[in-house]
Amino acid sequence: MLKGVHHIAIICSNYSISRKFYTEVLKLEILKETYREERKSYKLDLALNGNYIIELFSFENPPKRNSRPEANGLRHLAFSVENLDAAIQKLQSKTIQTEPIRVDPITGKRFTFFEDPDKLPLELYEE
User: Fold this and answer.
1) How many CB atoms lie within 10 A of CB 126?
2) pLDDT tens, position by position, 95-109
3) What gap in Å lies between CA 60 and CA 115, rounded to an integer?
4) What span, in angstroms and rounded, lies between the C-alpha atoms of 29 and 87?
5) Do 58 and 41 contact (CB within 8 A), yes or no?
6) Domain 1-61 - what CATH class?
7) What are residue 60's phi and psi, to 5 degrees?
């Protein structure tokens, strides 16, 4: 029945800041940007390595969502990387703070977390 994940939708509180973060810091490719006048809302379609993955939305006054302490529901978005240390260095060069590196006790793989401008937890997972 299911073929795969089509996209992840993210609602941001400040469109210009989040747009810059996802396109300039994380280097996601813009596929299409649409302003929907009737909703006073932007929709930005973003791709990673040519694969459509994120819809970034803006809405007027969206309610805050708890990320910490860990709340019920979707916890985080994880990106795979080949070299965790190099990925961390790139983020830190853009003043993005990362948590200390952890090791997955089940797989033995290294990973870390950081946040988008709205404190959405994002993960880098070394393949």
Assistant:
1) 18
2) 999 999 999 999 999
3) 22
4) 17
5) yes
6) alpha beta
7) -70, 125
- Are 112 and 102 in contact, with CB atoms under 8 Å apart? yes
Reply yes or no: is the peptide bond before residue 69 cis, omega within 30 of 0.
Answer: yes
Cβ(113)–Cβ(99) below 8 Å: yes
Phi, psi of 125 (to 5 degrees): -120, 120
Side-chain-facing half-sphere of 78: CA atoms under 13 Å: 11
* Amino acid identity at 81: V
Paired with 97 in beta bridges are none
Q: Which CATH number fits domain 76-127: 3.40.50.2000, 2.40.37.10, 3.40.50.2300, 3.10.180.10?
A: 3.10.180.10
Give the integer Cα–Cα distance in Å for 79 and 85: 14
Look at the chain and count its residues. 127
Give tens-digit pLDDT for 51-91.
Answer: 999 999 998 888 887 777 777 777 889 999 999 999 999 99
